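USER: Study each token:
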Amino acid sequence: MAVFKALGNGITTASRRPTLLLILWVINVLFALLIAGPFFALFKSDLGHSLLGRNLQALDFIWLGDLLFRYQDVAPAALAAVTTPVVLYTLVYVFFNGGIIGRLLDREGRTTPQTFFSDCGRYFWRFVRLFLVSLLFYALAFGVVLEAVSALLKPISERALTEWPDIWISALHSVLALLFLSLVHMVFDYARITVVAEDDRRVLHALRAALRFVGRRVFRAWSLYLLIAAGFVAGTAAYVLAGQAIPAEGLGWTGLAIIWGQLFIAFRLWTKMVFFSAQAEYMRINPY
């Protein structure tokens, strides 16, 4: 029952932080514009108001191939223009985690841009160190554990008489990869929460505490994580199905589609808040 209690309390906590959700949404929109802006400008200058521009599909490989050929000399600069915001977003993602967890764990404090960014700066370098350590854990999970699983499954695939065993083995390998990814991510979520909750500058100490906490109740902690993930998958499926009912033509329908897309972004950000708040509640209910 502790899992469901933590989930319910986490949802309540996240839902009571609309200002935090608004801050995250604005940041997300600004970064989306930063990344999409150069490509949109190129699209606009290349096609303008031509008939091709109006009939071009979302992913037209003929146009993309022609574009790459004509702009091959500036491809490195264009690649840098796209990858730089992505790398920057990764750093900012680490930066903002401190603000998210800090505001969710501060039950009495107000959520304002000032308090949010103050928490971001306070925990940034600690979270950077945790992020670097997490890369080693991801490398271990994918480079060692999953390779060992692949080696165990390979004889089955080689003895298969049809393609179906290969399909099932590939699906099993993908599922295991996602499960290992979620397990590593969950451990570092608890490490981040520990850093904020205890104001601990010793990130390795916080990581050991998180490993000890998860190790004692791995299946229950993992079930909480997977429940939230399943809720997000279900919400995403509902979003896609409902979005297919919106007509593609018409100014009003286009506006509705844009609003619908922004609602999904808000849902994704809110789910991130639920992950942190529910796991923090689970730690509070089950102190290590």
